[in-house]
Backbone:
C-alpha cells in the first residue's frame, strides 16, 4: 500500500539524517565539552532509535489480517510508539544529569564556530524532515510518523536554543549551556509522555473521538427509516476504528428491506468517515405508535 511505502521511506530518511547529525554533534560536542551539544547528540541517538522503531512497526502493521489476527496488525504502530516514548524517557535522565553536573562544577567549554555550523546544519536537516513527516502524518493519520514529526519539530526548537547558548558562550556567558541542556531533557520528556499517552489510549481500546462519533450519528440521523440507535461501541484497529451499533426500524418492514438499510448505511459510513475501518450494524424491529391499537 502507498501509505506503508511512504512511511517506510520517511523512516529510512530519518535514520540516515539522524546518523549524520549524531556523528557531527558528538564530534563537536566532545571536542568543545559543550553539554548542550552533547545533549543534542544524545537526542539524535534517540531519534535514530525512533526512526528504526518506525520502520519495524510500519512493516508489521502493514501485514494483512490472518486467522490469528482477524483485525490485522495495525496496533503494532502503537506498541512501537510506546517503546519509542519509554526509551526517550530513560534518555532524559542521563541528559539532565550531565547538564546539572555542568552547572554545579561550573565547567566552561571551548567555544568553536563549528558549534554554530552544526546548529544551522541540524536546523536545516530537521526542518526538512519535519515538513515531510508532518505532511505524511496528516495524510495517513499515523501515530508512528506523527511521533517522528514531533521529534523533528522539537529538534528544530531545541537546536535553536542550543544555538543561543553557543552565542552566549561566545560572549563569556557559559551557564546558559547547562540550562539549555536541562531544557532539552525536559522537552524530550514532555514529548515522550505525549506519545506514551496516545499509544496507551489506543492499546487500552479508547473509544472513537467525539467528533468522529458525531459524524456517524449525522449520517444515521439522515435516514428517516431509522427510528432509534443504541449500543454504540468502537474499537481501535491500528489508526482507524471498528464501530458497532443497533438500529431500530419499523417492525412491519420486511427482513430484506430492513437489512438493506443497514447494508447501505455501512457503505455510506465507509465512504464518508475516513476514521472508520469497519461498521457492524445489528437491526432490531420496533413497534411504531401508529401500529399500536
Residues:
Amino acid at each position: 500500500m502507498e501509505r506503508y511505502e511512504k512511511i517506510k521511506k520517511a523512516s529510512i530518511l530519518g535514520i540516515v539524517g539522524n546518523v549524520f547529525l549524531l556523528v557531527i554533534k558528538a564530534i563537536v560536542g566532545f571536542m568543545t565539552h559543550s553539554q548542550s551539544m552533547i545533549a543534542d547528540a544524545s537526542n539524535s541517538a534517540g531519534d535514530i532509535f525512533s526512526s528504526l522503531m518506525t520502520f519495524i512497526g510500519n512493516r508489521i502493521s502493514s501485514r494483512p489480517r490472518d486467522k490469528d489476527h482477524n483485525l490485522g496488525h495495525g496496533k503494532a504502530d502503537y506498541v512501537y510508539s510506546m517503546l519509542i516514548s519509554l526509551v526517550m524517557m530513560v534518555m532524559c535522565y542521563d541528559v539532565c544529569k550531565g547538564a546539572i553536573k555542568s552547572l554545579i562544577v561550573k565547567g566552561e567549554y571551548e567555544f568553536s564556530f563549528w558549534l554554530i555550523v552544526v546548529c544551522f546544519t541540524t536546523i536545516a536537516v530537521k526542518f526538512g524532515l519535519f515538513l515531510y513527516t508532518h505532511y505524511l502524518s496528516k495524510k495517513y493519520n499515523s501515530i508512528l510518523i506523527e511521533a517522528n514529526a514531533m521529534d523533528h519539530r522539537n529538534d528544530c526548537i531545541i537546536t535553536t536554543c542550543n544555538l543561543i547558548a553557543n552565542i552566549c558562550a561566545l560572549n563569556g556567558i557559559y551557564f546558559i549551556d547547562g540550562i539549555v541542556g536541562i531544557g532539552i531533557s525536559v522537552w524530550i520528556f514532555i514529548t515522550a509522555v505525549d506519545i506514551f499517552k496516545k499509544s496507551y489510549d489506543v492499546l487500552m481500546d479508547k473509544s472513537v473521538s467525539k467528533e468522529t462519533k458525531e459524524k456517524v450519528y449525522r449520517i444515521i440521523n439522515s435516514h428517516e427509516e431509522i427510528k432509534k440507535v443504541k449500543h454504540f461501541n468502537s474499537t481501535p484497529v491500528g489508526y482507524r476504528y471498528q464501530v458497532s451499533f443497533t438500529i431500530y426500524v419499523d417492525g412491519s418492514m420486511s427482513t430484506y428491506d430492513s437489512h438493506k438499510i443497514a447494508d447501505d448505511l455501512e457503505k455510506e459510513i465507509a465512504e464518508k468517515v475516513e476514521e472508520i475501518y469497519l461498521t457492524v450494524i445489528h437491526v432490531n424491529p420496533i413497534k411504531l405508535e401508529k401500529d399500536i391499537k
Q: What stands out?
A: Residues 2-32 form the longest helix (31 residues). The two ends are 57 Å apart (CA to CA). The mean pLDDT is 81. The helical segments are 2-32, 35-61, 76-105, 113-140, 143-170, 175-203, 210-221, 255-272.
